[in-house]
């Protein structure tokens, strides 16, 4: 009887210890930092990933999303990821040029993507995959491409034709291609962190900028810009990336679940981006604070002709073969450069 009691006590103790250990096991924390507002396409997609990841891992993973540069500004976030201070980012594709992967600046070339179909063929095909692979030598793994959209130009004077930008100080991301783009228009490019743009526009440090409508609206830039032009001249997209050491150190089953959650979040992000931009443009027009010009087909051709020389000028930086490979994708859809 004493023996049975002893065995029972031991078993009870083992079970209790096991339960305590399970309760004490800390979830894997993924800090997901980004620089835009929570109600942008990227912000909503990050929240979708958090929801799916936490639900599907049954609490074994906790995703902490930090929007609006709460943790890091543009220039700081990639270094923070490489150091392991954060585990996940979704920086704009222009950010990888300063990191040493200049090929990503091909996405900044004006009018390189004549349609969403061409863009999707690039990001979801061999070209997009090969570009993400180039990040691994930097301690980074690329998981997905997320859309934002095509950019509008804004300033405190009407921008009806390319010459209207001459002499204007225009905020850009750090990108040699975007620098060349603005110089081709006679503007003075000013590299500046996204979180600083509103105040810079408000105080006249810069005269204007380029953004997809959702970014312009959620950052309230329309309150400090009198005019906008829907040129759709450039694309702004993001790469969702993770710290390589962290990602490869995850249990295989957890990593597989997170990959599934990322795939679904990517479909969500790319599905809502156009709607969000359309809604943001409509809201800014309705506010009456920014007057938007919708160029005619003929006017758009003038913008296109003014900016196409940037392609050839940037061949040495992003790679002539890469540019040609995107042209070939466009030709499959009936477009010719």
UniProtKB/TrEMBL annotation:
BP GO annotations: C4-dicarboxylate transport; transmembrane transport
GO cellular component: outer membrane-bounded periplasmic space
A Pfam family this chain is assigned to: DctP
Keywords: Signal, Transport
Signal sequence annotation: 1-22
Matches recorded under CDD domains: PBP2_TRAP_SBP_like_1 (cd13674)
Cited NCBIfam families: dctP, TRAP_S1
Homology family: Belongs to the bacterial solute-binding protein 7 family.
The name this protein goes by in its record: TRAP transporter substrate-binding protein
Organism expressing this protein natively: Magnetospirillum aberrantis SpK
High-level lineage: Bacteria, Pseudomonadati, Pseudomonadota, Alphaproteobacteria, Rhodospirillales
């Amino acid at each position: 009887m004493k023996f049975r009691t002893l065995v029972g006590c031991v078993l009870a103790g083992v079970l209790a210890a096991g339960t305590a250990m399970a309760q004490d096991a800390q979830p894997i924390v993924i800090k997901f930092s980004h620089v835009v507002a929570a109600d942008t396409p990227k912000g909503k997609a990050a929240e979708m990933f958090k929801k799916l990841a936490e639900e599907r891992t049954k609490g074994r993973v906790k995703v902490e999303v930090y929007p609006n540069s709460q943790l890091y500004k543009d220039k700081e976030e990639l270094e923070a990821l490489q150091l392991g201070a954060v585990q996940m980012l979704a920086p704009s594709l222009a950010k990888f040029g300063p990191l040493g992967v200049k090929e990503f600046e091909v996405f900044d070339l004006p009018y390189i993507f004549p349609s969403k179909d061409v863009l999707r063929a690039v990001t979801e095909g061999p070209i997009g995959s090969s570009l993400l692979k180039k990040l691994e030598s930097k301690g980074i793994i690329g998981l997905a491409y997320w859309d934002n959209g095509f950019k509008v130009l804004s300033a405190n004077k009407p921008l009806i034709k390319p010459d209207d930008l001459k002499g204007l100080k225009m905020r850009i991301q750090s990108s040699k291609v975007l620098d060349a783009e603005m110089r081709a228009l006679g503007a003075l490019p000013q590299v500046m962190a996204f979180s600083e743009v509103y105040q810079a526009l408000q105080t006249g440090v810069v005269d204007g900028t380029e953004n997809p409508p959702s970014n312009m609206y959620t950052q309230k830039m329309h309150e400090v810009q009198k005019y906008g032009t829907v040129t759709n001249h450039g694309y702004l997209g993001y790469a969702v990336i993770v710290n390589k050491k962290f990602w490869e150190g995850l249990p295989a089953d957890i990593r597989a679940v997170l990959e599934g959650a990322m795939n679904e979040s990517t479909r969500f992000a790319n599905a809502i981006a156009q709607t969000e931009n359309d809604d943001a443009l409509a809201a800014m027009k309705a506010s009456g604070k920014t007057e938007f010009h919708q160029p005619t087909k003929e006017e758009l051709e003038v913008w296109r002709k003014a900016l196409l020389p940037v392609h050839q000028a940037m061949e040495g930086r992003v790679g002539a073969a890469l540019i040609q490979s995107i042209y070939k994708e466009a030709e499959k859809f009936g477009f010719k450069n």
